[in-house]
Amino acid sequence: MKCYVCAKEGKDSDAVAVCVACGMGTCMKHTIRKEVDVWEGSYPIPSHKLPKKMPRMLCPDCNAAYGEG
Prior knowledge:
Helices cover 17% and strands 42% of the residues. The protein is built from two helices and four strands; from the N terminus they run αββββα. The longest helix has 7 residues, at 60-66.
């Protein structure tokens, strides 16, 4: 799989991750690793936040949509 962002820029880079939100393949330069909270409980209302966070790989567009903070 190739990096979609690099391909749009006319570059050829191998993807190292797949965005968890949209499925876009991204290279090391365009992959954003974000630590997110993990909640325990049943749908629709999670009961409490667990002490550890879980890593997620996002593309630049989805990271911007989630908010960069």
